[in-house]
Amino acid sequence: MNKLCQSIRFVAPFLLAICCIACSNDKKLPFYGQREARITKAADGTEKVDTVYQTIPPFRLLNQDSIYITQDAFKNKIYVADFFFTSCSTICPTMHRNLKTIFDAYKNNPDVMFLSHTIDFKYDKPSVLKKYGQKLGVDGPKWQFVYGTKEEIYHIAEHDYLVAVQEDQSAKDGYIHQGWLVLVDKHKRMRGAYDGTKSDQVAQLQKDIAILLKEEN
Amino acid sequence: MRKIVLFLVMSTVIVTLIYSCQDAEQLEYQTYYSNGQTLYQTYCQNCHGEKGEGLGLLTPPLTDSLFLKNNRTVLACIIKNGATTPVTVHGKTYEEKMPAFPKLADIDIAQIIVYVTNSFGNKMGMYPYADINKDLKSCATR
Q: Distance from the CA of B28 to the CA of which of A48, A165, B80, B95 falls in 20 to 30 A?
């Protein structure tokens, strides 16, 4: 009996440690947006309930090279999406300074991409976006900047990525919008939203990207 | 003997005066600097960065002491009226627009200038309130 106790005492810490490692490996990011239960029937007639999460629907938008891009550009990638405009003098510079640190951290990882939508449909034509990307220091296909009509972009922002955007003459630069950085997984599902103006939340985004990359490999 | 006492008293008074003067100056500088820091964080940091590092080629850094020294008298104008003509900072050319801050009071601008020109590796000392009127007057003619 004494012996058993002793061996339990000896093994317990290891068991605990294994538990902890297993748990932390299991860490999964939440799913954002709406969800619905779908009942599927297997071949043998038994019924199964699957949860279906909100996904980003297909899109077709002009990028900084004046080429139309679709979701094909993000096939099997995870990406961070946001809404901004080049002449924004308030939150955008902070958002993109912060996002650029993540861009630099994943520079050599082709599985991570970035997608910035301009909400300034009047001024931010592809050539303006191109210049902006070059000056920010992120020129290249890894960080896509896209332009669309007001209807297209504002619909995508509010219905697909759940980010509020608005034209507003009384605002400093003519628009108001939220500074969310939205993390999208390889199955087009939203897995996180981070305030791009807060460095602690951006640090969390960087950690969550690492978790998401592991989860899906 | 009386002379010596008188001398001692006088010199003490003078030294105390000098000291308290310095204290007042030092205090004013410190007030400007710390108010300037708060104003910088509110109005400038998004573009110019926490460490004055700038942002790519979109916004120039505020770490070029020589630029700041050479442009000391136009800093107030840059802040109040914004800037559109390209500038060369640390050998790189920047040509984006800096927005104007017409709502900032003169005292705010003076305090921001003290903070900027004494942070990020710059050490230019006090920018007295008396200078701002003069500097802002010459903006229009430029």
A: B80
According to CATH, what is the number of the domain A3-31+59-216? 3.40.30.10
- B59: domain CATH number? 1.10.760.10
Candidates B55, B57, B99; nearest CB to A97 = B55
The verdict on a CB contact (< 8 Å) between B58 and A134 is: no
Contact of B56 with chain A, judged by CB distance below 8 Å, is answered with yes
- How many structural domains comprise chain B? 1
- 27-46 in B: which are within 8 Å (CB) of A? 45-46
The predicted-structure confidence for B95-110, as pLDDT tens digits, reads as follows 999 999 999 999 999 9
Domain limits for position B83: 2-141
pLDDT digits (tens, 9 = 90+) for A8-29: 555 555 544 444 444 455 578 9
Q: What is the pLDDT of residue B6?
A: 85
Query: Across the interface, which of A87, A90, A136 has its CB nearest the CB of B56?
Result: A136
ipTM higher than the 0.90 cut: no
The separation between CA A103 and the C-alpha centre of its own chain, rounded to angstroms, equals 12
